[in-house]
Design brief:
Order of helices and strands: HEEEHEHEHHHEHHEEEHHHEEHEEE
Largest sheet: 9 strands, mixed
Radius of gyration: 20 Å
InterPro entries: HET
Structural class: alpha+beta
Pfam families: HET
Protein name: HET-domain-containing protein
Number of domains: 2
Length: 324
C-alpha cells in the first residue's frame, strides 16, 4: 500500500470513528427505524471478516440484515468497474481488491477500518445495461441511502480513478468555500444521496467534512460550524411538507436540483424520486413525477423569461427548463 494511502487511511478512519461514536451517543435524529437490524440492499459487496483478505465478492442478500456503508462517486468520462449480466458470475465469485479502481479500493479499505462488513456501490451492485434491474433498484434508492450506517463521498475525485485520500490535507480552506461546488456535488444523483444519507462523510481535496442530521464539522476542528445556521443551507430538512409555504420550498429544491449535471438526461426524475419519496412519507401529499397532486394547479403554471434573443420556459415547479 502506498505511504500516502496508508497515512490517509489511518488518519481518516480514526477521525470518522470519532464522529460516528459521537453521533451514535448524542444524535437521536440520526437514528434509523432499522438502526439495529437494517435489511441490506438487494446486492452488496461482501468485504469478509478478515481485513487482510485480498478479494471481495458481490452478494445477493435475500433480505439478510446487517450494517452497511454506501459510496457516492463521480462516474466521469471513464466509466467505473461495473456489474453486467456478462460479468455477474465473475463478481459473485470474487473481485481482487487490486483490480478495483482507486476510489473503490479506498472505500473498501475505509469501510473495513470502520468495522463494517458490507459496502454498496451503484455500478457494482446494480446490474448495468439491464433495464428491468435498473427500474427495480432505482425505486429502492431512498431506502439504500437512508438505511446505510454511513455514506462515504469521494467529493474531490472526477472519476473512479481519483481515490479518496490526498497528501497534505487540512488547510484553512473551509466548508463554506468548497463544499457547495465539487466534482461530486455538482452531480444530480449525488444531491439525492446527500440529502437521504443520515451520515455523509466528504473526502475533499483539502480535508474531511462530516455532515449528519444533527451537525456539520470539518477535520480542522473549526468550532464556528457548530454554532451557526449554516448547516440548514447545506442539509435543509426533508420535512418541508409542514412548511406553510410548501410549494415554494419544493420549488427551491427543484430550482437547485435542475442546475446539476446528469450523464443521461432521462435520469432527471428518477434521480429525484428518493427525495420525493422521503417527503411523501412525512406528509399527506401525493407525488406525481415532479409535481404534487394537492398543488397541481399551481405546479402547472409557467411563464417566459427573455434572455437576449432566446426565451427560457420557467415552470412554477421547475420540472422542465428549456429554451425556445
Amino acid at each position: 500500500m502506498p505511504q500516502e494511502t496508508r497515512w490517509g487511511l489511518d488518519t481518516s478512519s480514526k477521525w470518522i470513528k470519532q464522529q460516528l461514536l459521537d453521533c451514535d451517543e448524542n444524535h437521536p435524529d440520526c437514528k434509523s427505524d432499522q438502526e439495529k437490524n437494517p435489511v441490506l440492499p438487494t446486492r452488496v459487496l461482501d468485504l469478509g471478516e478478515d481485513p487482510e483478505n485480498t478479494s471481495i465478492h458481490l452478494r445477493e442478500t435475500n433480505n439478510l440484515v446487517g450494517v452497511y456503508a454506501t459510496l457516492s462517486h463521480c462516474w466521469g468520462l471513464v466509466h467505473p468497474l461495473t456489474t453486467t449480466r456478462d460479468t455477474y458470475d465473475q463478481r459473485i465469485q470474487g473481485i481482487a481488491i487490486d483490480e478495483l479502481p482507486k476510489t473503490f479500493r479506498d472505500a473498501v479499505l475505509v469501510t473495513r477500518k470502520l468495522g463494517i462488513r458490507y459496502l454498496w456501490i451503484d455500478s457494482l451492485c446494480i446490474i448495468q445495461r439491464d433495464l428491468t434491474d435498473w427500474k427495480i433498484e432505482s425505486s429502492r434508492m431512498a431506502g439504500v441511502y437512508s438505511n446505510a450506517y454511513v455514506n462515504l463521498a469521494a467529493s474531490g475525485s472526477r472519476d473512479s480513478r481519483g481515490g479518496l485520500f490526498r497528501e497534505g490535507r487540512v488547510s484553512g480552506l473551509h466548508l463554506w468555500v468548497y463544499s457547495l461546488s465539487t466534482p461530486l456535488l455538482d452531480r444530480a444523483w449525488v444531491y439525492q444521496e446527500r440529502k437521504l444519507s443520515r451520515r455523509f462523510v466528504q473526502f475533499t481535496t483539502s480535508e474531511l467534512v462530516w455532515e449528519c442530521n444533527a451537525s456539520i464539522t470539518c477535520e480542522c476542528g473549526n468550532p464556528f460550524l457548530k454554532h451557526c445556521a449554516f448547516p440548514d443551507l447545506i442539509r435543509p430538512k426533508l420535512d418541508v411538507s409542514k412548511d406553510p409555504n410548501f410549494l415554494q420550498a419544493w420549488s427551491e429544491i427543484l430550482g437547485f436540483y435542475t442546475r446539476l449535471a446528469l450523464t443521461e438526461e432521462e435520469d432527471r426524475l428518477p434521480a429525484l424520486a428518493g427525495v420525493a419519496a422521503a417527503i411523501q412519507s412525512k406528509s399527506n401529499q401525493t407525488y406525481y413525477t415532479g409535481i404534487w397532486k394537492e398543488q397541481m394547479p399551481k405546479n402547472l403554471l409557467w411563464g417566459l423569461l427573455q434572455q437576449g434573443e432566446s426565451f427560457e420556459i420557467i415552470y412554477c415547479s421547475h420540472v422542465v427548463m428549456g429554451s425556445l
